[in-house]
Design a protein that fits this description.
Blueprint lengths: L1 E2 L2 H9 L5 H5 L3 E2 L2 H11 L4
Helix pairs in contact: 1-3
């Protein structure tokens, strides 16, 4: 299991390699606040 903060997840998303986490870890925990931070990074600006 891994618990991650936003920075490595954002980088993996930007380079389209988020799937590497599935290969390395059986379970990935992303706290709600981190999910909100990541989502905000990828929302279009108004």
């Amino acid at each position: 299991m891994i618990v991650s903060n936003a920075s490595p997840l954002i980088v993996l998303l930007k380079i389209n390699k988020l799937s590497i986490l599935k290969e390395l870890f059986e379970k990935i925990v992303i706290p709600e606040i981190i999910h909100k931070e990541i989502t905000a990074c990828f929302l279009p600006f108004p």
